[in-house]
Amino acid sequence: MVKRISTADHARITAAIQQAEATTSGEIFCVLAKEVSAYQDISLLWAAAAAFVLPLGLIPFGFEPSWIPGMASGWDAAHLSGHLTESSQALAAYALIQSVVFVLVYAALRLPPLRRRVTPRGVRRSRVRKAALHQFLAHGLHVTEERTGVLIFAALEDHQVEIIADKGIYSRVDQAVWADAVEALTEHLRADRPAEGFEAAIGLVGTVLAEHFPPRARNPDEIANRLVEI
Known about the structure:
Distance between the termini: 15 Å
């Protein structure tokens, strides 16, 4: 797991952004997010499904309330009220088992490695993308003069990287060109080298921007050159 990076690492990333932006009118901003979603809804859905399905496996084995200590008296009653009592005890025992299964499964799925495995990739991708878009807007990358802002976003718990380019870039650059930058950052994060990863990604993004958006005669620095950790 990548830990919060050092002050020296932040300085390296800032320098990489400044170097890249010296060759382009584009603006680059970086965000490192520990967690974009708690995925509580996914954990609840899996826990509810487990509580409904798993206890059914006890029925073929002749499940009885007496299997649970304290749920049955041990006396048999032959009359009608006795059968009603047995049914009530059986329902109560079954509900208790469902509750236990629900709590255990939900607790297990709050552990990040398990939570990540049971959360569909499409759901994780969608929420990482949503979080990245939020950061893109929150830091004003959509209001640069020529709409040439680029966000490099990494989500640690989800093991995903997103690169979002503003309208001015999106209309002129094939989105597939960002694949190398995404791969470079992903590989370095996997090896617990976040600073090197961002430096590599920034360099690749800067190369693309320099090709399509060379620096203007008046080339102000519109967005802060830094990495934000959230």
